[in-house]
Design brief:
Helix content is about 35%, strand content about 25%. The chain is of the alpha+beta class. Helix 1 packs parallel to helix 7. The chain binds flavin-adenine dinucleotide. The site of flavin-adenine dinucleotide has 33 residues, from helix 1, strand 2, strand 9 and helix 7. Flavin-adenine dinucleotide binds next to helix 1, strand 2, strand 9 and helix 7.
C-alpha cells in the first residue's frame, strides 16, 4: 500500500479489509481536494488511484477566487499563489484590432486575480497536504473494477499493482472522482447527457512568454480563435482553433498558426508539448445513487474555454465533504444531504456549462461578417459601461450560483464549517 504522499508506487502488499468512512475513487485534483477536506475533519478515508505517476501535462491552469478561498481553508492558498502567476487582466483582440479588456483587479475580496498554475502542480500540492492527515490513505496503482452496496455499506473491488491482485474493501460511502469517462458512473448506470461542440483545438506550452509576462490574451479572428495564457517560470500556453481534429502536425504548426492570425511568433524550438482536443459538454441526470456519489468531471463536463471544469469540481468537493462529514459524524440521513448535493451542485454545474457554451459560441464564429459582428459586440457591449464591470466577476466564477458552501441555502450544512 502507498501511504499518503509516498511516491513509491504500485507496491504489492495486501490491503486490509478495514471499513472506511469514505472510499474515494480517483486522485485527480477533485479527489485529492475532497480527501484533504475529509482528512482535515478526521474521517477515515481510502483514496484509490489507478495511475502510478502524476500526469505531467499542464491541463487546467486557471484557479478562480472561490477555489483559492477553499484552498485557504486548508492553509494552502499562499503556497499556490507563490508558485503560480497572478493573471489580473485579459486583453481581447478581434479582426479589427484591440477590443478591450476584462480586469480582475476590482474583484471583491482577497483574491483580485485568477491564478495560473499547471494541473500537475495543483495535484502535487494537494497530495503533499494529504500527508498531514493520518486518517487518510492514498493508494496508487489501484483500479476500481466493481462496486456493490446495501443500505449501510459499500463494497469496492479493485486490482492493485502490476500483478493486479484483487482486493475488497468496505466503506460507509463512496465518492467517485474518476474523471469524465467515470467507470463508477457506468457501474451505477447514471446517464451523462450531452454532446461534443464540433469545435477542435490544438494546444501547446512554450518556454518563452513573447514579452507578454502575466497577461492573458484572446484573439478572435476570421480564421479561428487563439488563446494565450501565462504559465509560471516565464512559460506560456497557446491554444488555436482548427478546422478538424488534428492529431499529427509539423513541428512549427502552432507557431505558424499564431503568427498568421496574431502576428506573434512563439519559437517552435521553445515548444514543450502539444495536444489536440475536441471539447464536449454533459451534465449527469443525477449525482448519486444510494451511498455512492459522483463528483467533479465524473458528474459534469464543459469546454475548457473559460477554465471552469476543475473549479466546478472543487466546489462539488466542498459541498460533498460537508455532506459526508454530517452523515458520518452526526449520523444524519444520507438521503437528505445527498439530495441537497445533487440539487445544488447540478444547478451550479449547469450554469458553468451554459457559460462555457456561450463562450464557445461567440469565440468560435468564423468568416468575415460574423467577425465584424463579434468585434462590435465585444467592443461596444461587453467591454464598455456597466456590463464591462460584470465581466471580471463573471469570468472569475463569482456569479455562479452556489459556488461555495456559504451560498447554499441549507442551514444544516452551514452549521459544519470545514
Ligand atoms: C486543455 C484543458 C484545459 C483545462 N483548463 C482548465 C482550467 O484552466 N481551469 C479549470 O477549472 N479546468 C480546466 N480544465 C478541466 C480540468 O482539467 C478538469 O475539470 C479536471 O481535471 C477534473 O478533475 P477530476 O479530478 O474531476 O478528474 P480527473 O482529473 O480526470 O481525475 C480522475 C482520476 O481518476 C482516476 N481513475 C479513473 N478511473 C479509475 C478507476 N477505475 N480506479 C481508480 N482510479 C481511476 C484517473 O486516473 C484520474 O487520475 C481543462 C481541461 C483541459 C483538457
Amino acid at each position: 500500500m502507498t501511504r499518503n504522499n509516498d511516491r513509491t508506487l504500485g507496491e504489492r502488499t495486501a490491503i486490509s479489509s478495514d471499513r472506511y468512512d469514505v472510499v474515494i475513487v480517483g486522485a485527480g485534483p477533485v479527489g485529492l481536494m475532497l480527501a484533504c477536506l475529509l482528512g482535515a475533519r478526521g474521517l477515515h478515508v481510502l483514496l484509490l488511484e489507478k495511475r502510478t505517476t502524476i500526469p505531467a501535462h499542464s491541463m487546467a491552469i486557471g484557479i478562480t477566487p472561490p477555489s483559492l478561498r477553499l484552498l485557504g481553508k486548508l492553509g494552502l492558498d499562499a503556497d499556490f499563489v507563490s508558485r503560480g502567476v497572478k493573471v489580473e487582466n485579459c486583453f481581447i483582440h478581434g479582426e479589427s484590432g484591440y477590443l478591450g479588456r476584462v480586469t480582475f483587479q476590482d474583484l471583491p475580496g482577497e483574491y483580485q486575480f485568477i491564478l495560473s498554475l499547471p494541473q500537475a502542480d495543483t495535484i502535487f500540492l494537494l497530495q503533499r497536504k494529504l500527508a498531514e492527515y493520518p486518517t487518510v490513505t492514498l493508494c496508487y496503482g489501484a483500479e476500481v473494477v466493481e462496486l456493490s452496496q446495501d443500505e449501510e455499506t459499500c463494497r469496492i473491488l479493485y486490482a492493485h499493482g502490476s500483478e493486479r491482485r484483487m482486493h475488497t474493501v468496505a466503506a460507509k460511502l463512496v465518492a467517485a472522482c474518476d474523471g469524465s469517462r467515470s467507470p463508477v458512473r457506468e457501474m451505477l448506470g447514471i446517464r451523462a447527457v450531452g454532446r461534443d461542440y464540433r469545435r477542435h483545438f490544438v494546444m501547446g506550452d512554450f518556454s518563452e512568454d513573447n514579452g507578454m509576462h502575466d497577461e492573458a490574451h484572446l484573439f478572435f479572428k476570421t480564421a479561428g480563435s487563439v488563446e494565450s495564457f501565462p504559465l509560471p517560470g516565464g512559460r506560456r500556453r497557446w491554444i488555436v482553433q482548427t478546422d478538424n481534429f488534428i492529431s499529427e502536425t509539423s513541428a512549427d504548426f502552432l507557431s505558424s498558426v499564431v503568427a498568421e492570425r496574431c502576428g506573434l511568433t512563439p519559437s517552435p524550438a521553445k515548444q514543450l508539448n502539444q495536444s489536440s482536443f475536441t471539447p464536449h459538454r454533459f451534465n449527469c441526470e443525477r449525482y448519486y445513487q444510494g451511498r455512492v456519489i459522483i463528483c467533479g468531471d465524473a458528474a459534469h463536463g464543459m469546454s475548457p474555454v473559460g477554465g471552469q471544469g476543475m473549479n466546478t469540481g472543487f466546489a462539488d468537493a466542498e459541498f460533498l465533504a460537508s455532506a459526508l462529514i454530517s452523515i458520518v459524524q452526526r449520523g444524519v440521513s444520507a438521503e437528505t444531504f445527498l439530495a441537497g448535493y445533487d440539487r445544488y451542485r447540478r444547478r451550479a454545474a449547469q450554469s458553468a456549462i451554459s457559460r462555457a457554451d456561450w463562450g464557445m459560441w461567440l469565440g468560435t464564429w468564423r468568416g468575415r461578417p460574423l467577425s465584424v459582428l463579434r468585434d462590435f459586440i465585444i467592443r461596444h457591449v461587453l467591454c464598455k459601461g456597466i456590463i464591462s464591470r460584470h465581466m471580471g466577476p463573471f469570468y472569475a466564477m463569482l456569479t455562479i450560483p452556489y459556488n461555495s458552501l456559504d451560498r447554499v441555502p441549507v442551514q444544516a450544512l452551514r452549521e459544519i464549517p470545514i
